[in-house]
Amino acid sequence: MATSANPHGKLRCRAEQAFRKRGGIMRMADALRAGIHRRTLYSLRDTGVLEQLGRGLFRLTDGPPLSHADLVTVAHRVPQGVVCLVSALAYHELTTQVPHEVYLAIPRDKEPPRLEYPPVRVFRVGERAFTEGIETHTLDDTSVTIYSREKTLADCFKYRNVVGLDTALEALRCYRAQARVDVDSVLRHARTCRVEKVIRPYLEAIL
Question: pLDDT of 85-117, one tens digit each?
Fold first, then answer.
C-alpha cells in the first residue's frame, strides 16, 4: 500500500503558503487557527524559513526587508494601539529625532501590553482623545493605525513635558514646511486635548 511521502515536508509547505497568503507575517494565534502546528512553526524558525520578530510573531525570511519593522511588529502585537507622539512625528517626517521606542496610545480602560521587543512607551488615553484623528496606513503589507499630523501636533503640546516643548515647536516648523497646513484641524484637536490656549500663540507665530 502506498503511503504519503514526507508528510512533515507537506506540513511545512502548507505553512509557508499560509504565510504568503497573509503577506509573509503572522501571529502564532492566527497560525494555529490556520491549522499550523506549533512544532511546524518552530521547525520553520529553526531551519531559517521563518524569523521570530517578537514573542508569538513570525515572518518569512525571504520577504523584502521591513521598512518599518518596529511599527509593523507593534501593529500585530497590539492591534488596538495607535502610533502617537514622537513615533507619529517620525512617520510624518515632522521631526529630526529617531525614536528608540514605539510611542503608542491605547484606550484608558485597556491594560498596557507586555512586549519583549520592540520597546514600547504606552499612553492610556480617554475615549474621545483616543478615537479622534486616527489614520490607517499600509506599511510592509500591514495595516498600521497612526494619528494624523494635526492630531499629533496637538498631542505633542498636551504631552510637552514628556516629549519636550522644543520637539513640539520643531514639529510645527516642519508642518509649515510641508505646505499642507490645516490650522482649523490643529485647533480642533487641540480643543479635544485641552491645549488650545497653549498652542494658539505658537500657531500664530509659526504658521
Answer: 999 999 999 999 999 999 999 999 998 888 888
Q: Kindly list the distances between the CA atom of residue 23 and the CA atoms of 8, 20, 47, 82, 192, in Å, as whole numbers in the listed order.
A: 23, 5, 20, 21, 37
Q: What is the dihedral sign for C-alpha 128, 129, 133, 137?
A: negative
- Reference 158, options 179, 130, 134, 181; nearest CA is 130
118 preceded by cis ω (within 30°)? yes
Separation CA 166–CA 170 (nearest Å): 6
Q: What is the pLDDT of residues 25-54, one digit of tens each?
A: 888 888 888 888 889 888 899 988 888 887
List Cβ neighbours of 58 (8 Å cut-off, separation of 6 or more): 19, 25, 26, 27, 28, 31, 41, 44, 45, 50, 51, 52
Half-sphere exposure of residue 40: CA atoms within 13 angstroms, side-chain side? 20
d(CA 115, CA 118): 7
Question: What angle do helix axes 7-21 and 38-46 make, rounded to 10 degrees?
Answer: 90
Whether residue 183 contacts residue 150, with contact meaning beta carbons closer than 8 Å, is answered with: no
Per DSSP, the three-state class of 195 is coil
